[in-house]
User: Fold this.
Amino acid sequence: MARHLGIGMAIFLALALAACAPRPPVPEAPKQTDLSAEIVTTPDGQAPEGPDTACWATESSPAVIETVTEQELVTPEERAGDGTVLKPATYRTKTHTRMVSDRQTIWFRAPCPADLTPDFVATLQRALKARGYFLAPLSGTLDEPTVDAIRRFQSERGLASRQLSLAAARDLGLVIASLDQL
Assistant:
């Protein structure tokens, strides 16, 4: 009996000492790439200058116009000395529009169309599937589920586009070249 108590005490002490031992630091989660840093705008809406081997994709965002409706006081209410309303206030509705943001065309580097082979697209689908963005079966084609997964992946990183950017392809581990190397 005493022997069992001694073994139990030894296990207890070992566990207590293990709890006091310093733990290795938990590695930080990888940071999300900010794809908006890759966006280029040009004053004339034409593709930016770049290396001859560069391929560019473009997206246009529509102008955002807001309609504002306000009630404007025409005549104030009239009250009697005891506070009762003799004549209610009158108002008129005034509506106007204002431009929130102009139409904008953005450009960003993209994999060249010749590079979007069925094998590349299947690898893209696997990478998006591994991250929970692509739920359909692998097809190797840029079908609707694939471009929707691309849009959702990129939107969380600052680029709302259905076209794969080179930076997103790099972030997914599909291409290794940086923009400076091309």
